[in-house]
Amino acid sequence: MTRLPHIGSARAVRLFDGCQSALVWLAVLALAVPETAVASLAVLAMVAIALAAAFVAVCPPALPSTQHPACPEEEPSRVL
Predict the structure, then answer these.
(1) If 0-12 CB within 10 Å is exposed, 13-18 middle and 19+ buried, where does residue 1 land?
(2) Which of 22, 7, 10 is nearest to 55 (CA)?
(3) CA distance 30 to 39
(4) Closest CA to 61 of 15, 1, 2, 23
């Protein structure tokens, strides 16, 4: 049985927030574009992003231990 990967809590929050904003923009795109091919592609992208956000929500937070290599802190000004 494989274990779920560990994601740091701050990184998980940033990823989840990025997924939410991408979902909003894709929803606007799907509603604003009259072409059905573009709208259906936007809906499929929304499904993929929603699955990624659900996976991040399910993953346990990373434990501060010596088992996992420490990730360097990211700059707070860097955006996903």
Answers:
(1) exposed
(2) 7
(3) 4
(4) 15
pLDDT in tens, the chain (80 residues): 556 566 677 777 787 788 888 889 999 988 998 899 999 999 999 999 989 888 877 876 665 554 445 555 656 666 65
pTM: 0.60
Q: State the DSSP code for 40.
A: H
Question: How many degrees, rounded to 5, is the angle at CA 59 between CA 51 and CA 57?
Answer: 50
CA–CA separation, 49 vs 57, rounded Å? Answer: 12
Whether residue 71 contacts residue 77, with contact meaning beta carbons closer than 8 Å, is answered with no
For residue 39, how many C-alpha atoms fall within 13 Å in the half-sphere facing its CB? 8
